[in-house]
Structure formats: structure tokens, C-alpha cells
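Help! Submission page says 'invalid entity' but I think these are all valid:
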Amino acid sequence: MKQSISKKTIVYPHPVFVIGSYDIDGLPNIMTASWSGICCSEPPCIAVSLRKSRYSYENILFNKAFTVNIPSEDYVQQVDYIGIYSGKYVNKFQKTGLTPLDSNTVKAPYVKEFPVSLHCELLKTVEIGIHTQFIGEIMDVLVDEEVMNLDGTLMIEKIKPYIYDSSTRAYYGFGRRLIDAFKAK
Amino acid sequence: MKQSISKKTIVYPHPVFVIGSYDIDGLPNIMTASWSGICCSEPPCIAVSLRKSRYSYENILFNKAFTVNIPSEDYVQQVDYIGIYSGKYVNKFQKTGLTPLDSNTVKAPYVKEFPVSLHCELLKTVEIGIHTQFIGEIMDVLVDEEVMNLDGTLMIEKIKPYIYDSSTRAYYGFGRRLIDAFKAK
């Protein structure tokens, strides 16, 4: 039996991404975002929705760039912190012990300790409601050598990404491999 | 050591959603989509990117509505099939044995067997590149009673959502609960 739970932003999985940007003084900042996903294959683009009140909002508009960093579950506590507090009031790199590195391709910092980072130029903004969607063109992807297979694919078992459950407000790891994709007949 | 893998649409996790729509003859169709994510809290909205060549593209424009269905891993084979073949040539409900039900709120079908479905009105379209992004306002969410806790939250353990790994092209289940969100100090 189906039951309505009304208008809710509940899907499984929500991703957990850490968005890197410089503020107008050039200081690196990070925020946690889950209202996000890939939105185009060519040019390769990712969409991230932010509220106007977020510190990163002005940062990204100012620099026309941001990074999307994929944290490993080893950093779940730090990333939870990054999602609660604002860069207006606290230096989140300093507080969490994470290390900002300059992107070689866009004007934004990325997180050294995280295994995968997407380096994006702001392509367009879309006003929706209380969120503004930033569509970033992915100019480069950096990965830790330790998570790469010899054929260039990535090892999810070493990346250890995790997901956000917005219904019970908790984080979950990923599980076992089910099947290969695009094989069904 | 970081290594560039160039411009790729690789993030962890990609979601696996099944998009429901009616074609211009009123026949229900489903497609699998991973270029998607929540994009606004108020109004609650979800973005789904489609290529113009997809059968669902015209369907959604015609009816100004679609559903986003969250499959359980029990249906991973069927959903893989739904992502490969086009509704132009095959009735995917019939082929997979899944059951289309009429949404009470929008002009789109949803999948009876899947535990969660979002019922969306098309709010706007955004041209990006080879993909067009459909932004849907979530008008209702239906869930199976069996996956609901008494307090109205949902049981991820019973929903059994899964994720797509675009690097090795495989599906993975979700794993263990890590920590509660929004508690870090």
C-alpha cells in the first residue's frame, strides 16, 4: 500500500560533496553540498545548488569557478562539520586539518586529502526557488594515484564514498558490487 | 600523488532513478537516469538531464510532468534493461513485468513495485549541451507503507537503494550506517 508523505526532497542516494572556492580576499573555503548531480555529458557538467546566504555563493560568482571534492568515509566527521558551520565565521580548512591546494585549471582550491576532485568553471546559474543552481563545466578531474587501476578506472573500494539519507539524517557507506551495468538483454 | 584523468563526468555516488512519463498516445514509459539530483528545497525540486533523442524527452515536454522512481536493488537487472532500450521500440513495462500506476497529482505514471516515487510537474528546462535539464517541482512523494517508520521517516534498509559507478560501469548497494548528520562540533 502506497502512502503520501507530501512534498519532500527525499531521494536515495543523496551524494555528499565538498565544494571548494576562494573568497574575495583569496582565502580558501569549503562547504558540504548534497543538492547536486552530473547534468551534462558534453560538455561535461555538474550542477550544485546553493542558497544565496551561503558564503560560497558570492565566492563562486566572484571567481566563476569551484571544485567538487568527493570525500572518503574516513572524513565523515569533518565533512559533517563543514556542512554545519559557515566560512564567514570560521576557517574550515584550519578547523578540520584539511589542506587546500590550488587548482591548476580553475580559480578554486581543492582538498588534498580527498581522493577525487572535479575542477569546474561556472557555465551558468539557474534561479529556481530558495536555491540557485550553479552549473559548472568540468575542466579537469584529479584523482589519487592509489585509487587508480592500471586501466585508468577508479577503485570505489579505496575511494570509500558515502551517501546522505535525508529522511533519518544520517550517512551510509556504499556496499557490495551488484552487477555490471549495460549488460541486460 | 594526484593525477589528472581529464574531463570526465565521474562522481561518487551517481544515483539510479527510473523516470516515468506518458507518450503522446498516453502509453506509459520508463527510462533509467543517473544525471540527476535534488536542486531546490523550496519549492522542492529535482533536476533530471535527458538527451533530446530520448523517447522520454518529448513525453515530458508534452505532458509537463514526470515521476522519479527509486528502485530497490532487487530490481537491478530490470533497471539496467530500462536504461539500455528505448520506449520507441519496446514496451518496457511489459518487458520487465513492472506495473505502471497513474499518479493522482501529475500526468505521469509511477512504478508500483518501487518503494519510493516523486511526482513532479515540469517547472523549467535548461539547455546545457547535449543534455537538456528538466527541473521538476515535487508535488507529492509516495512510499510503500512497509518502508515507513512509525515517526514517518523511511527505512533505507528496506528501500535498498543502490548506486551507479560510472568509472567501472557497475552498480553497488549501500552499506552500513556511519554517523548521524548535523551533529559535528
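Support: the input was valid. A stray whitespace character was the problem, and the output above is from the cleaned input. The domain at 14-173 of chain B is CATH 2.30.110.10 (Pnp Oxidase; Chain A).
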